[in-house]
Write a structure and sequence with these properties.
The chain has 67 residues and is mainly α. It is 84% helix and 0% strand.
């Protein structure tokens, strides 16, 4: 994942994709392209959340050791 990854923009894009897919008025090719983009964004966001969770766990662990 690149340093320019923007979690919030990715979430917004996922919301757009979800809304379009839920309407169901797309051609099959458009639907599969959006689905593919969405799955990639979900994976990237999941990875970013895992990284954040590890940082928080590390910080929390360091603070517990200091106390």
């Amino acid at each position: 994942m690149s340093e320019s990854f923007d979690f919030e923009k990715s979430i917004e894009r996922l919301e757009e994709i979800t809304a379009k897919l839920e309407k169901g008025k797309l051609k099959l090719d458009e639907m599969t392209a959006l689905y593919s983009e969405g799955t990639k964004l979900v994976a990237s966001c999941g990875k970013k959340l895992e990284e954040a969770q590890l940082k928080i766990t590390k910080i929390t662990g360091e603070n517990e050791n200091d106390g």
